[in-house]
Specification:
The protein contains 12 helices and 22 strands. It binds flavin-adenine dinucleotide (FAD).
Length: 407
C-alpha cells in the first residue's frame, strides 16, 4: 500500500495500516509534517465541531463582506470564479444541516483525541503535549456568546469553564487585562510543535517497518487490480493507494475524472521571541481580533484567521499586519523570529473531510479536506481508512465523510 502525502493525515493512515500488518510506503516531496501540518496553531481541539459555515455565520456576513474583519478576508475575483462553491458552502449554514455535521465531527474528535494522547507518548513526544485547554477570549462583553457556546458543548459532554476578567488573570497572569470574558475549553490539549509531532509519528511508523520515500508524485494510474504511482524517476506500484495530499489532493484526482469541490481557507503565522517568564500557558483565540497566540518551541506563534483566495495566489500579509498590534496589546513579546509562513486549510462545501473509498476506482482511498481541525483529526481519519482497507469497522461512524457525497 502507498500513502500519498506525509502530513498528519497521511502519516496517521500509514502508521495505522502498518500496525494492521500491511506493508506501507509513505511518499511525500518533503519531509513528514512540513506543510499545513507544520504551520498550524497546534490545538488538539475537543470542541471545534461547529464549522465556519454554521447559522451564526449569517450575522457575521455584513462584517465579513466589508473585507475589513481580521478573522476573514476574501478575494472578490476568487469569489466570482468560485461562486458555485460559495453557494454550496453557505447553503450548509442552516440549523438542519449543522447539527448532523457537528455530530459527525464530534465522533471523529472523540476518537482522535484518544489516539493522539496514546500515540504522542508512544512516539516519545509526550513532553510536547500540554493538557491546559485553550482559551477563547472576548474584548467586549462576550458572556452571552460564551454561555451559548458552553451550553452547546455541554450537550456533547464537552467540558468548559466560563471566566471573567479576574479569573482570566488568575489562569493567564501574563495576559494584559484586555479581555472581559473567556471560555476555557478544558478538554482540549495543545502541542508546542505540530511539525515535530508529525515527524515523531513518522518515526514511529518507520520503527514498525514502514518505509518513507521523498519524491514528487506526478500522477496515479490504475492498472489491473492495483495502482501505478508515477514519480520523476520511475514509479511505484501497489494494490491500495491513499490520497492524503491535503490542499493538493484535488490535483492528482482530476485526471481520473473526480472534480473535488475544495476551497482554501488560507492562514499565516509568524513567530516572536517570548519575553520570558512573561509567556502563555496555553493557546488563546481572540475572537474579535481574529487571531490565535500560542506558545511554541520556536517562540510565540501568532496565527491569523481565514483568507479565501486561490491556493497559490501571492501572499498578502494584511491579516498578520492587522493582528500584530492587537496581539502586542495583550501580551508582551519581542522581535519577529524567521519569516512569516503561509498555509491553506483544505475545505469542502460541508466542512467535513472525505474519508473513504473513491467511488469509481477500487483500491483508491481518500482522506483530505480537514479544514481548521486536521491536526486534531488526522489520527482517527488514518485509523478509519486503515480499517476500511482491511475490511474492518472504523472506530466511529464514517457515513457523513463518504467521498460519494461529492464525487
Ligand atoms: C493557520 C492555520 C492554523 C491551523 N490551526 C489548527 C489547529 O490549531 N488545530 C488543528 O487541528 N488544525 C489546525 N489547522 C488545520 C490543519 O493544519 C490542517 O487541516 C492539516 O494540517 C491538514 O493536514 P494534511 O495532512 O491533510 O495536509 P498537509 O499537512 O498539507 O500534508 C499534505 C502533504 O502532501 C504533500 N504533497 C502535496 N502534493 C504532493 C505531490 N504532488 N508530490 C509529493 N507530495 C505532495 C505535501 O508536501 C504535504 O506534506 C490550521 C491550519 C492553518 C492554515
Amino acid at each position: 500500500m502507498i500513502v500519498l502525502g506525509a502530513g498528519i493525515v497521511g502519516v496517521s493512515a500509514a502508521y495505522a495500516a502498518q500496525q494492521r500488518g500491511l506493508s506501507v510506503i509513505l511518499l511525500d516531496r518533503r519531509e513528514p509534517g512540513s506543510e499545513t501540518s507544520y504551520g498550524n496553531s497546534g490545538v488538539l481541539s475537543s470542541g471545534s465541531i461547529l464549522p465556519l459555515n454554521k447559522p451564526a455565520l449569517w450575522s457575521m456576513l455584513p462584517k465579513y463582506l466589508s473585507n475589513q474583519h481580521p478573522a476573514l478576508r476574501w478575494d472578490p475575483a476568487w469569489a466570482v470564479r468560485n461562486v458555485g462553491w460559495l453557494a454550496r458552502f453557505l447553503a450548509n449554514a442552516i440549523p438542519s444541516r449543522t447539527r448532523p455535521r457537528a455530530d459527525a465531527l464530534h465522533s471523529l474528535s472523540v476518537a482522535t483525541l484518544k489516539l493522539h494522547r496514546e500515540w504522542i507518548v508512544q512516539a516519545d513526544a509526550g513532553h510536547r503535549i500540554r493538557e491546559t485547554g485553550w482559551l477563547k477570549v472576548w474584548r467586549s462583553d462576550g458572556s452571552a456568546a460564551a454561555k451559548a457556546e458552553q451550553a452547546f458543548l455541554a450537550g456533547y459532554g464537552i467540558g468548559s469553564e466560563l471566566l471573567d476578567r479576574q479569573a482570566i488573570s488568575a489562569l493567564e497572569p501574563n495576559l494584559l487585562p484586555v479581555y472581559t470574558t473567556a471560555l476555557l475549553h478544558s478538554d482540549t490539549a495543545s502541542v508546542d510543535s505540530p511539525g515535530e509531532v508529525v515527524k515523531a509519528y513518522a518515526r514511529m511508523f518507520a520503527g514498525i517497518g514502514g518505509q518513507i520515500r521523498q519524491a514528487e508524485i506526478t500522477a496515479i494510474v490504475p492498472e489491473g487490480d492495483g495502482w501505478r504511482v508515477l514519480l520523476p524517476a520511475g514509479e511505484l506500484t501497489a494494490r491500495h493507494v491513499v490520497v492524503a495530499l491535503g490542499p493538493w489532493s484535488a490535483d492528482l484526482l482530476r485526471p481520473l475524472g473526480y472534480q473535488v469541490p475544495m476551497a482554501f481557507e488560507r492562514g499565516y503565522h509568524q513567530h516572536f521571541q517570548p519575553t520570558l517568564p512573561r509567556s502563555l500557558r496555553r493557546p488563546i483565540h481572540d475572537l474579535e481580533g481574529g487571531f490565535v497566540l500560542t506558545p511554541m518551541e520556536q517562540g510565540i506563534r501568532l496565527t491569523t484567521g481565514v483568507e479565501l483566495t486561490g491556493r497559490d495566489a501571492p501572499s498578502s500579509f494584511a491579516q498578520l499586519d492587522a493582528a500584530l498590534p492587537l496581539a502586542r496589546g495583550v501580551l508582551e513579546f519581542g522581535e519577529a523570529v524567521g519569516e512569516p509562513w503561509r498555509g491553506a486549510r483544505p475545505t469542502l462545501p460541508d466542512s467535513l473531510p472525505m474519508i473513504g473509498p473513491a467511488p469509481r476506482h477500487p483500491g483508491l482511498w481518500l482522506s483530505f479536506g480537514h479544514q481548521h481541525i486536521g491536526f486534531t483529526t488526522g489520527p482517527a481519519s488514518g485509523v478509519a481508512i486503515a480499517a476500511m482497507i482491511a475490511g474492518a469497522a472504523p472506530p466511529f461512524d464514517t457515513s457523513a465523510f463518504s467521498p460519494a457525497r461529492y464525487l
